[in-house]
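Hi, here's the filled form for the chain we discussed.

Project: internal
Contact: R.S.
Residues: 112
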Amino acid sequence: MQAQPAVEDHTPQDVVTQATPKRPLFTLGQACATPGALDALEQNQQDPARFLARHVTGDWLEMCAQDQETNREALVHGARVFSAYTMKDGKKLWVITESDRSVTTLLLPSEY
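And the returned structure, exactly as it came back:
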């Protein structure tokens, strides 16, 4: 019997992101995370770099159309960029890059 290859758990957005590498749309600045976000990422065994990569390349598909448009406008006008993602356990993770692009923070909604 032939061994089956290991299959990783991916969301549809992960598959799209992996199949079509994208370039960063803006500068992240210093990346930081709140204690709650770090705990949640560790509990879910998820890499914060993956969420940062999705954020900076414009993978905002988990957000409503209006929020996606607000982010596109933020790129033109130099405003704050906000993303929301669902972790494996169903909890939300927010990623916010400040308008001056000096810092990007991963946080839980309850920590805002």
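Let me know if anything looks off before we file it.
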